[in-house]
Amino acid sequence: QVQLVESGGGLVQPGGSLRLSCVASRSIFSANVMGWYRQAPGKQRELVAYIGSGGTTLYADSVKGRFLISRDNAKNTVYLQMNSLKSEDTAVYYCNKVPPGPYWGEGTLVTVSS
Length: 114
Known about the structure:
Blueprint: E1 4-7, E2 10-12, E3 18-24, H1 26-29, E4 34-39, E5 46-51, E6 57-59, E7 67-72, E8 77-82, E9 91-97, E10 108-112
Parallel strand pairs: 2-10
Antiparallel strand pairs: 1-3, 3-8, 4-5, 4-9, 5-6, 7-8, 9-10
């Protein structure tokens, strides 16, 4: 069964931190590059970070130095530690393979506001 379940979003003040989690079905997670994507209101979905099965990572310039992606292969889980959050980080965050498959989870909403 295909499954992507994101969690950990919420309301945070600028400069704050959040940690997102995503549990994926084994068919999606195993041996795949996994990524975190986000979609802000009125904008297209974008890839913000990805991690290979061996731990290689890459970040969008907009989050480099602030976000950290990691994965636990035993738990089919990928994480996104978000620090120094800015208002422009407000979006619904999703995880998926890179490149993404056709199935998407519901995402988790991150709102950065004072």
